[in-house]
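haha ok so turns out i had the wrong file open the whole time. this is the CORRECT one, sorry everyone. sequence first:
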Amino acid sequence: MKKTLSIIMSLCLILACFISNVTITLAETSSQPTKGRVDPEAPEIFGDAAILMEAETGAILYEKNSDKQLYPASITKIMTALLTIENCSMEDTVTFDENVISSIPYDAAILGVVAGEKMTVKDCLYALLMRSSNDVAIGLAMKISDTEESFATLMTNRAKQAGAINTQFANSTGLHDEKHYTTAYDMAMITKSAIQNQVFCQIAGMDCYTLSPTNKSPNDQVIYHRHNMLVSTRPDYYAYAEGGKTGYTDEAGNTLVTFAKKDGVTLICVVLKSDSKHVSRDTRALFDYGYSNFEKVNIAENETRFSQNEDNFFVKMNGIFLTSGSLVSIETGDYCMLPKGWTLNDLGFKIEYDDMSDGKIGNIKYYCGENVMGTTTLSVQAQKSDEPISPILHGNTSTEENNSQIPINIWYVVAAAAILVFIIVYIIYLVKTRDKRRRNRERKKVFKESKKRYKKRRRRPIKFK
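then structure:
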């Protein structure tokens, strides 16, 4: 019986392999770029640190001392604004007290609020990001937290959530403090998180705004953005600039964060410890460099190394339903930044395997040098039908009915049916043969027993009386 089961299992395995021809091959998990890191016509930057990052992919297109810890000055207020937007309604009211006003140094930028004055959060945010008002920054911090110190803790934690790794905030204003520092990379990541909020983008990109009257100021107040690249009447105006924030202290020098959009590509530029002459000029040069030398491409539409026609990564399947192709798909909405003239094949990659929750297998990260230029997700996908390459069993050829039909490879069906019939016949043959042998054994056994009894009777002696 065991021998019979073994034969049946072997036949079933052969049948399964015939019906669904599965080839499993695993690719290398990483590769080096086929071209070296190229920075074509990269500009010379005056500032001590700078970075140019693409906002969607996080690709770093240029960097100079991007991990160097420096003082941020008033670009700190990007985080102050983001926390305010996430924790307050635009119609909430901020009331300023004497402690807020008296804590501001005499030479710091202020809006000029007075004790007891009330402003909406919306107007406070415009004054914060456009005028860099320190009195407003502290008022917003006190509204959200009991103290500015506790608000600074919230800022530092939120920065870590945004991807900052070398940042610590000590206040909501950016006024100098030895324990208040950041890096160009961290500020780019904070800005990357902030511009995902439409309210932030609207306020940070406004060149002119009118503040509403308050209980202490009966007249409208017109304010203008301090960022020269956002105001069309100023010499440093940049047509593609969408928003940003300025900063300055004696210790920090001039700092500037700007985000710009052109041809569907949003770039973030951060310059730290510069001067008023070079900070906008360097930002423009980096934007021009980025837009002239890089392009954003859809990964799924341009990736060829992991094609279903290649045997280097994906599981392939050709089966009874004419399904052929990879069992793993690339996320269709992911993008990668490329130096112009490059293809995805020119970038290095690394595959990081993950658990298979929700169909996800892992991620592919694309590298140019040490910089990540884009990331996409690998997921398990359902099979799709290809063009038939062998006889197909067709039904009605109308469009509506064909949409609900699945093309079937008839040779696989015939072969499967033949093997199935063979297995059934073979099983029946085995059963009948086994029964016949059992009956023969029983007959022989009965015959032997009868024969023994006959011989025994013949040997029994005859007794005479």
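The chain has twelve helices and 18 strands.
again sry for the mixup
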